[in-house]
Amino acid sequence: MQERVNLLGLSGPQLREFLVGIGAQAYRADQILKWIHHEGMTSFDEMNNLSKALREQLAEKAVIEPPLVHERHLSKDGTRKWLFNTGGSLIEAVYIPEPSRATLCISSQAGCSLNCTFCHTGKQGFHRDLTSHEIIGQIWTVCHELKAEKVFLPGASRVISNVVMMGMGEPLMNTDNVLSALNLMVDDLAYGLSKKRVTVSTSGVVPNIDKLSDALDVSLAVSLHAPNNELRNILVPINKKYPIDQLIAACQRYVSKQKNRVITIEYVMLKNVNDTPVHAKQLAKVLAHLPSKVNLIPFNPFKGADYERSTDEAIELFQTILMKAGFITTIRKTRGDEIAAACGQLAGQIKDRTKRQERFLAKIPVSEIVDRI
Ligand code: SAH
Ligand code: SF4
User: Fold this and answer.
1) What is the CA(123)–ligand 2 centre distance, in A?
2) What CATH number does the domain containing 221 carry?
3) Sheet with 89-97: strands ordered across
4) Same domain for 18 and 86?
5) Which of 84, 242, 267, 347 could bridge across to 67 with cysteines, CB 3.0–4.6 Å?
């Protein structure tokens, strides 16, 4: 029997194409999208505005299957983490409530192939790209579980206002599946989020920044982390392929497509590595002509890491220099620390296909590894 298609991951245009392919009417896609994403339905039986014949045909050719929830964690500050089992690897989504908004941070890959030296995900190696249904399935699950608990945004019937693709993986190394999921995020028939409130974070896969720009103008965050190529080659190795000037040029092209667009520049603060006033001044020069704001991320340590978090004084001085140079500069507050849900701590268990995890674990004393398992 032919494998059934998982409709959860199909964008509006893809679902229309699928329906036409099985001889159904394209406009039925609107009804089906609403059943799946607004109502959280996983069976065709109850889709009572579709004919019985179509429902039977769908049941034969398609499924609606969210990813399996492995565990849920709730932190004292209200942050919640979902671990999903995606065929042997655990991936994560983190829900971060604030007084006037709620952000969901989702994953795009099981592990990551890019190996940034300060990132826990990178250290675990790479298993595989997530499918579009596994990507949107994180939002589907969180929204429907929180709705059932009646955890709504203040004065609204929705549960989340923002999505950031800052969990595990590099979204622009899995661009096609990410694009299908992004389409659903901004589609009123699915999650209806404003494009401004959906952010793709990338370490700088230059050609795919252009691909994203051609397809959908969501917000873009770029993990710069260093103001010169010598240092960035070490911290973010993909820089050797796409160095800073090429990356900034791609950012310029991205902002030029849309009025008032600003790129968020992410900059992890590593003690005595990239956090001195000289680095801050260099960074201001690199960004001088790019409409951008800077988000300083205090490094989140993990066992076996080669770096330490910058001191509060160093972070504040860095911020002051950038502000004086005219950049809006924020310092990211660490949330969900005790459930390991903070940036760069997102670390499930990855069926590593590279030897990277093994090499990394070999550096950590066995007594310390025990509590990781
Ligand atoms: N791969 C994408 C998105 C996931 S990482 C990217 O690199 O942009 C999300 C953010 O967390 C990135 O800015 C990343 O550099 C940052 N990050 C990774 N490890 C971190 C750590 N240990 N402490 C603080 N931030 C970290
Ligand atoms: Fe991958 Fe982003 Fe981590 Fe780099 S920082 S290893 S790109 S997840």
Assistant:
1) 9
2) 3.20.20.70
3) 68-74, 80-86, 89-97, 102-105, 162-165, 198-202, 219-223, 263-269, 292-298, 329-331
4) no
5) 84
Residue 202 Cα: closest atom of ligand 1: 8
Query: Nearest bound ligand to CA 106?
Result: 1
Look at residues 63, 85, 111 and tell me which one is the last residue of a structural domain. Answer: 63
**Shared-domain flag, residues 159 and 131:** yes
CA distance 278 to 318: 9
- Asked which of 30, 48, 63 is the last residue of a domain, the reply is 63
- Binned average pLDDT, 10 residues per bin, the chain of 373 residues: 91 98 97 98 97 97 97 92 93 94 96 95 92 98 96 88 97 98 98 97 98 96 98 98 98 93 97 98 98 97 94 98 98 75 61 70 47 28
Active-site annotation holds for 92: yes
One domain for residues 266 and 306: yes
Q: Are residues 14 and 99 in the same domain?
A: no
Report the run of H or E that residue 81 belongs to, with start and end.
strand 80-86
Q: Which atom of ligand 1 is nearest to the CA of 169?
A: 1
Tell me the C-alpha distance between 17 and 10, whole Å: 10
Q: How far is the CA of 223 from the centre of ligand 1 (A)?
A: 7
In the reported structure, the alpha carbon of residue 318 is separated from the centroid of ligand 2 by a whole-number distance in angstroms of 23
Proximal ligand: closest to the CA of 118: 1
Q: What pTM was estimated for this model as a whole?
A: 0.94
